[in-house]
Amino acid sequence: MISNRRGFFGRTFSSSALAWALPRTDGETSAFVPVVTPDIDKLPFRLVDGVKEFHLTAEVVRTFFLPGRVVDAWGFNNSVPGPTIEVQEGDRVRIIFENQLPELTAIHWHGIEAPMAMEGSVGLGMDPLQPSAKYTYEFTLHQHGTFFYHSHFAMQEMMGMIGLMIIHPRLPYQPKVDRDFGLIVQEWMILPNNTVPNSLAMEFNWLTFNGRSGPDCMPMLVKQGERVRIRMVNLGMDHHPMHMHGHQFTVTGTEAGRKPPHTWFEENTVLLGVAQARDIEFEAKHLGDWMLHCHLPHHMMNQMVPMVGPLHVDKRQAGIPGYPQDMWMPMDELYEKPETHGLRAGWSAAMMGMMTMIRVLTPAQFDEIERLKKEPRKIKIVAPAGHEHMHGEVKK
Q1: Which end of the chain is more exposed for a tag (fewer CB within 10 A), N or C?
Q2: How far apart are CA 2 and CA 73, in angstroms?
Q3: Helix and strand tally (H, E) in the chain?
Q4: Residue 161 in 3-state DSSP?
Q5: CA–CA distance from 336 to each of 70, 347, 387 (Å)?
Q6: How far is CA 264 from CA 89, 245, 252, 261, in A?
């Protein structure tokens, strides 16, 4: 069954950017702007004797990168990437982890300073978890920033097993932001007539933000004049020069936490290395629909394959060696959703691969999209050959 944790059956792209004042496990409260992770759910918790208790399950997940591109990946709680864990500095957390994979696994809490038996050093601090077994991770959070969790088995990482872990500080960062977003970038090799990623590949033909590939990545919506933070995490085989159109930004954090303000300086491209996080912040000064993407040329495309034999020749390229055959294929109606309302015709043709967008809107435009999101709508499902049972429409 196709994962319904996002997309067609309910996208979790909250428009609320109001600061939350949530109870902490030590009795204090801390106001913060909740992080929106487009196309990815938050992992719920319950408070048990002052401990925030989460339930996380590793499992095989059938998902899709965009309509028609079905993928049998591995993830958590029916989600690829896994659901976002959002907590606060000082919290005591308990993650009850269950392995529903067909092989051994273990979770590493990347960058988290936890006891050795809890931080996921498989083989050193703990034994691998057998299929159908459970393990309880429990530790107190002494850090704050953008962190993540992932399988500590290499091939399982390449099958999709990662999720964000956002730890808010005791006191909000300054300057405060109005919007806070989280993105995970991943690379995949899906061979022809296959739905299972080739986890041994060194070339990649599908590139995703939060498990979706452009043009199907959910846009990030902000109002003109707001201060915006975007947290980006990379767990793949390639580094990614992440470029944003229309605005300059500053890098305010890494996988080690918040950077001192005196180290900040303006950029519009930042290298997001393997196993790294980068927090960028900017003021949304300029109205418009602005791309955010990896600037590696092959990562701005989908379904690339190594060239075999001569390229097809047509009248345009006659006598022109090396004609590159770039494609321009607008399919706006396939990706229509409230969040794309008002984009100019043909927008989808330019949004392939590891590409998403930040929409800087007037208050009236923002409110209109919010209104549309509340209306019932029909969403088209397009299936590839062999998956015709997926054809049809469902109502949101």
Answers
A1: N
A2: 11
A3: 2, 25
A4: coil
A5: 19, 11, 22
A6: 23, 19, 6, 5
Question: Which parts of the chain have pLDDT scores under 70?
Answer: 1-30, 304-325, 378-396
- Sequence length of the chain is 396
Which two structure tokens, joined as six digits, stand for 72? Answer: 């049998």
Mark out the alpha helices in the chain (DSSP H runs).
154-158, 363-373
164 Cβ neighbours under 8 A, 6+ residues apart: 35, 37, 40, 81, 84, 85, 146, 147, 148, 182, 184, 231, 233
Contact between 107 and 150 under an 8 Å Cβ cutoff? The reply is yes
Predicted pLDDT of residue 386: 41
Is the CB of residue 71 less than 8 Å from the CB of residue 62?
Answer: yes
394 - beta bridge partners? Answer: 379
The 3-state DSSP class for residue 70 equals strand
The predicted pLDDT at position 192 comes to: 85
Which residues have C-beta within 8 Å of that of residue 312, sequence separation ≥ 6? 325
CB-CB contact of 136 with 97 (8 Å) = yes
- Which neighbouring-strand residues pair with 84? 42
Do the beta carbons of residue 177 and residue 252 sit within 8 Å?
no
Can you give the pLDDT at residue 113?
A: 96
85, 165 Cβ separation under 8 angstroms = yes
Look at residue 382 in the predicted model and tell me its pLDDT.
45
In this structure, are residues 335 and 322 in contact, taking their beta carbons and an 8 Å threshold? no
Exposure letters 52-80 (e unless 16+ CB within 10 A, then b): bbbebbbbbbbbbbbbebbbbbbbbbbbb
Rounded Cα–Cα distance for residues 387 and 143 (Å): 46
Rounded distance between C-alpha atoms, residue 282 and residue 266, angstroms: 9
Position 6 scores a pLDDT of 43
What CA–CA distance (Å, rounded) separates 213 from 206? 7
Instruction: Write out the H or E segment, with its range, that includes residue 61.
Output: strand 51-64
For 57, the token pair is 């399950």
Rounded CA-CA distance 131/165 in Å is 24
pLDDT score, position 313: 56
Q: How far apart are CA 254 and CA 232, in angstroms?
A: 9
